[in-house]
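Hey L., structure's done. Input below.
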Amino acid sequence: MKVHDSMTREVRIASPSQSLQEVARIMAELDVGALPVGEDDRLVGMITDRDIVVRGLAAGCGPDTPVRQVMSPHVQYCFEDQDIEAVTANMGDIQVRRLPVLNRDKRLVGIISLGDIAMENGGERVAGNALSGISRPGGEHSQCA
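Output:
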């Protein structure tokens, strides 16, 4: 099975200049914990609810702080035509629960999460293996590898 068979296709993209409060509201509205950050038609980062709390609020940043100040700029990603098992194994290795999905022109076409993978036939085992890697202590717990 390929990533494009399981990924979520309609993805909201945050701007680096948006405020943390705006992005937090979007996350709440969509019931998601992460958004890709794009600028000039390119993926430039990821912002997670954890980034907002740990890198933002805990560091004294206010609600008007721009996303660029707390986002993870080093984005791990996968391609839509990659094999789902290889991508899931990589997610476990780099300790992330979701990855932006790009086409071969490096344009964002979706996002894949362990939840998306677990919903597929037989995906529970694959997602479970990745989760055991993600859950091991000592990881960065963000998009930075």
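The mean pLDDT is 85. Residues 123-134 form the longest helix (12 residues).

-- N.
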